[in-house]
Amino acid sequence: MPKAPPPGDSVSESSHPSRRTFGRIAYGAIALAAIGTATTYSVKAASAKGDLSSNLTLIAPAGAGGGWDGFARETQQAMRVDRLANNAQVVNIPGAGGTIGLGKFSTMHGQSDTILATGTAMVGGIALNKSPVGFDNTTLLARVAEDYDVLIAAGDSPHNTIDDVIGAWKKDPKGFVWTGGSAGSVDHLTIAQLALLGKIPASDITYIPKSGGGEAIQTLLSGTTDFASCGFNEVSDQIEAGRVKAIGVAAPKRIEGFDDVPTMSEQGYEVTLTNWRGWLGAPDITGDDSAQLLEILQKTRDSAAWKDALERNKWTDVWQTGEEFAEFVKEDTSRVEKLLKELGL
Predict the structure, then answer these.
(1) Edge-to-edge strand list for the sheet holding 89-92
(2) Which of the 8 DSSP states describes residue 107?
(3) Residue 104 to residues 22, 42, 101, 109, 286: CA-CA distances in angstroms?
(4) Using one digit for the tens of pLDDT, what is the confidence trace for 139-167?
């Protein structure tokens, strides 16, 4: 189980030496190629000394415009507005469900002035891509926020409830076409969990992955797909405009400002997956540096700028650190791996 280091301790490399060695060679090479000349990012030779807030790098393990990129840049902005980090910079290392960025990050031993965004998609990416590196090759810092998927259809769809959807789906499981984010993403897994609750074999799901909510909506409107599962903040404006219909949200309660959209649980389908996001520290950073990074993240989380970001993006605060965060990662990994197995992935 991944563990957050206690104050004053460092993360040991001895627990998974073979995975770490492979990660340095294979993923390090891939990630360096991915960076190429596309960014001005360069690997620092040693960890920062003194005040880490003076020069902090935030890695988004995805391309510009995606969920991780948005999370990292909202964090950067909150740090800047409240002067919590004087020179916070965001670097994008996209690919393979976040595992290209994770692989690169796993080689940055002791580099305490760099942190990596993580979350549900990385949990899926590690399992789906059989990544040689995982959370054990990092320092767990904090789970910060989560957002929820919403089940949508074209605005003129005759279906209005989850029961309507399940009923139509059962008549022709493989002919019923879904869309959402990448294979193994929280969008895909939400649909898998809904299928299992509706007594539909997950292996019968026909799923067309797209890069985001905008592309998914286009397939709905063109009739290429029947339904989509997307992050609520990705499609909320289209729901408001009436272009798409929200049938149910995978949240514990209704989303503020969208009180007419019922949860899936209200409709008898306990879909429990959330799209959580958080931060990892590099392997082998000291307990003092880990504590300093947590202090910066805690102050960012408590800032007015971050509270505004939560409201604008319809994110929920889920702050967790230490053993509580480590236990959550273990449970989430188990849940995601089970769903991927059901999907035959």
Answers:
(1) 89-92, 57-60, 114-119, 275-281, 139-147, 316-321
(2) T
(3) 11, 12, 5, 10, 19
(4) 999 999 999 999 999 999 999 999 999 99
Quickly list H helices, the chain: 17-22, 28-35, 67-81, 99-105, 120-128, 162-171, 186-197, 213-222, 232-241, 287-302, 304-313, 322-342
Tell me the DSSP string of 255-302. PTT-TTS-BTTTTT------EEEEEEEPTT--HHHHHHHHHHHHHHHH
Cα–Cα distance, 276 to 332 (Å, whole number): 10
Using a 10 angstrom Cβ sphere, with 0-12 exposed, 13-18 middle and 19 or more buried, the burial of residue 337 is: middle
Close Cβ partners of 298 (under 8 Å, ≥ 6 residues apart)? 142, 319
Pairing of strands 89-92, 177-180: unpaired
- pLDDT for residue 210: 82
Of the candidates 308, 335, 327, 331, the residue with the CA atom closest to the CA atom of residue 77? 308
Q: Cα angle at 107 between 336 and 86, to 5 degrees?
A: 95
Provide the mean pLDDT of the chain: 85
Name all domains of the chain by residue range, CATH numbers in brackets: 17-147+275-342 (3.40.190.150), 149-249 (3.40.190.10)
Q: What pLDDT score was predicted for residue 268?
A: 96
CA-based end-to-end distance of the chain: 23
CA angle at 20 for the pair 49 and 275, rounded to the nearest 5°: 80
Q: Could you tell me if 226 and 153 are in contact, meaning their C-beta atoms sit under 8 angstroms apart? A: yes
CA neighbours closer than 13 Å in the CB half-sphere of residue 143? 25
What's the CA gap between 120 and 184, in Å, rounded? 10
Closest CA to 179 of 212, 157, 201: 212
What is the dihedral angle through the alpha carbons of 104, 211, 267, 162, rounded to the nearest 10 degrees?
-140
Low-confidence ranges of the chain (pLDDT < 70): 1-49
Residue 60 sits at φ, ψ, to 5 deg, of -100, 115
CA distance 116 to 279: 6
User: Residue 2 has what pLDDT?
Assistant: 53
CB 117 within 8 A of CB 60: yes
Strand, helix or coil at 252? Answer: coil
